[in-house]
């Protein structure tokens, strides 16, 4: 009898942390806002966000436009603020359009963390994501290697996004002193057709201006340029892409894309949710502080989730690891 009583007591004690955890998260919900929920990159982030919410037992909303639409993001953020969530993760398409709403959320006591693309002049608590400058430097070094230090390059980007501008700056610094010229900076405005059509035009005018390489600072354009080169039987031109959606990896396997730079959107959202939850429960009295310049800040300024080059030497291993993680 004494043994049964003792065993029952141990069982109750073991449940207390679980009960406490469940109670502590009762009714909590978090929001992830992306710039394009349909692309594989953001679906991966959504999976990381979902996994973290399941582990914590909290509710969540993953929202954003179905196509690249910076003008829609402020409305999504305002709707999130009205719902009074326990915290918000947001990837910033245009920092100038969301700064006011981020500051409004902070003033309302809602922690906001930026992921993937930052709004550094806002009152967001900190940034989680790739060191985009270093990613650009890495891509620039690979481009210089491919072109042997000389050539004319077209760059595809979206200039409203701070992260893409940081990547471009990294490329520019990596190529400084070489004979490689970033001759054309093309704004694809979130539309892969712009990349396809523009690449087609450059190929058609190759005798007037010879293009040696295409640099893609975002995930959409690399596979489009690869399609153009493949459809026209063009050899000898270099593509350095961004991110690791299946089509991009397939073109690397086929030798059309030289390399791409992988990021960790799953990790950004997973860690982001865990840190938001920690902030919500920490009782941080004043969210509206300049934590970046505070030597004793309770939060970091930046969480670098890392990046890596994927090329023909490691693409198969990367795909195998991805399948192992996703079960697909």
- The tally of structural domains comes to 2
Beta strands, count: 12
Largest sheet: 6 strands, parallel
State the fourth-level CATH superfamily of the largest domain: Response regulator
Give the helix/strand class.
Answer: alpha/beta
CATH topology of the largest domain, by name, is Rossmann fold
In the CATH hierarchy, the architecture of the largest domain is 3-Layer(aba) Sandwich
* N→C terminal distance: 51 Å
Top-tier CATH class of the largest domain? Alpha Beta
| Order of adjacent strands in the largest pleated sheet | 2-1-3-4-5-11
Query: Overall pLDDT, averaged?
Result: 89
- How many helical elements? 11
What features would you describe in this structure?
Strands 2-1-3-4-5-11 form a 6-stranded parallel sheet, sandwiched between helices. The protein has 2 domains: 28-130 and 264-306, Response regulator (Rossmann fold, 3-Layer(aba) Sandwich), CATH 3.40.50.2300; 132-262, Rossmann fold, CATH 3.40.50.2300. Helix 3 packs parallel to helix 4 and helix 5 packs across helix 6 (162-175). Helices cover 47% and strands 18% of the residues. The longest helix is centred in the first third of the chain and has 23 residues, at 2-24. It is built from 11 helices and 12 strands. With 328 residues, the chain is an alpha/beta fold. The protein has helices at residues 2-24, 40-56, 73-82, 95-107, 132-147, 162-175, 192-204, 221-231, 246-253, 265-282, 315-326, and strands at residues 29-33, 59-63, 87-90, 112-115, 127-129, 150-157, 179-187, 213-216, 238-242, 259-262, 302-304, 308-311. 45% of the residues are buried.
